[in-house]
Amino acid sequence: MTYGGGPFGRAFHLHTELVNGKCPTCHENSILVGVEEYTYRCTTCGTELKQKVNGVISYIPSVASGGKIPKLDVITDADG
After folding, report:
1. Residue 28, domain extent
2. What count of Cα atoms within 13 Å lies in the side-chain half-sphere of residue 17?
3. What tens digit of pLDDT does each residue of 21-71 get?
4. pTM strictly above 0.90
5. Residue 69 resides in a domain
6. φ, ψ for residue 76 (rounded to 5)?
7. Rounded to an integer, what distance in angstroms lies between the CA atom of residue 49 and that of residue 38?
């Protein structure tokens, strides 16, 4: 799909991709949503992953060199 253009700014192309894979962070088989080329987000834990293809497709956490690996904290309702 293409959005924008005209008097409201430049047009941009939106392309998403859904794939099945095993997340290396939560170790669950889940759906990974492609947010940009070779970058996916795990729908189970929310970790952003980079796709690497070297004979086998694998996903690794997307973290800047020396950066902290993101962690999702789950908060539960104490009453329920």
Report:
1. 2-61
2. 10
3. 888 888 888 888 887 888 888 899 888 888 887 766 677 766 666 666 556
4. no
5. no
6. -105, 150
7. 8
